[in-house]
Amino acid sequence: MMQPHKRVIGPAIVRTRMGQTTMVKRTSFEGDACPIARSLDALGDWWSLLIIREALFGLRRFGEFQNKLGMAKNILSARLRALVDRGILATAPASDGSAYQEYVLTPKGRGTFPILVALRQWSEEFDDRPEEIATILVDREKGRPVKKLEMRAEDGRLLTPADTTLKPRSARRRSA
Amino acid sequence: MMQPHKRVIGPAIVRTRMGQTTMVKRTSFEGDACPIARSLDALGDWWSLLIIREALFGLRRFGEFQNKLGMAKNILSARLRALVDRGILATAPASDGSAYQEYVLTPKGRGTFPILVALRQWSEEFDDRPEEIATILVDREKGRPVKKLEMRAEDGRLLTPADTTLKPRSARRRSA
DNA sequence: TTGTGTGGTTGCATCATAAAACCAAATGCC
DNA sequence: GGCATTTGGTTTTATGATGCAACCACACAA
User: Predicted ipTM?
Assistant: First the structure.
């Protein structure tokens, strides 16, 4: 795959208390060519995915997130703002008619579902103490566990990691 | 869902709004009942998945990771150690006969592949500047993009998030 | 109007980070 | 063997984000 290249995004001059200035390299993967890094840049802090998870289950209000996740309010506030900035959540007027605000998932936010499922399944499969896992994700209709995510080729063949490779995006097939 | 119980243990990477990453005191979800939280506890810092990604592509040596990822050596050292502790990587004597050590993925580590694919696909689908993404994951045989991960029921029905629900693990079907 | 709950922001101490300097062992070269 | 260099880290240091708690503003209720 590609590696994230570290790059100095902006001149970040920092003044030490000794009066010196130093250049702080900000390692950001925003603008990086690696899509994994780009995703991590948007979701990579660990509260964000938990917030999204709760949102997928219907939480919308600041207080609901705060109660459920038990996180500091300032952090929640910062995370919600970041998620809104990134188009993962959107603010909306409260659905119950109150003047308060709600945070709802955008399609981009709902699109993280496979990521959450993948994380869940990894835990289910490899956790050292699986008996501590409290819930199973099931198909609502049948009540049976959802199947493990699998990678398939366009034609439906099941793929292992070794069956895949990375191609430069620019090298798109030009014929048909 | 579960409430994480806060417990300060290990490091976690957090992204600031400037795009910097920083490691902070983290509340750990180890021992939590939510499998997503448990996964995030093991993988949830952002360097770890990138290290795993490189490892999937064959990197094994400390120096290789360091060069490729461009991260501080102390952080890499800490991450590698944490990943080894968690059974995601294992140390092995160098394959080239030298006295140095190598870090190789365990099955548990290789099991993160769907997570990486999910992250990648999310980026490919929702990124604001998809043209900046340099690579595509393709089926090696045909050179065509791998199909988007999809959730299916045991019987093969395609599932949306709304088609799923969580069930307590203890409430396993006792009949049949 | 006063009072209470919701939805935050602000201040502050802690502590993990990231960069760089340092160091030891292994290897290469002669 | 002896010396230099590379590899693989650890230590040191400064920064600054986190998490907690206090505070605040607005909405809503009475």
Answer: 0.83
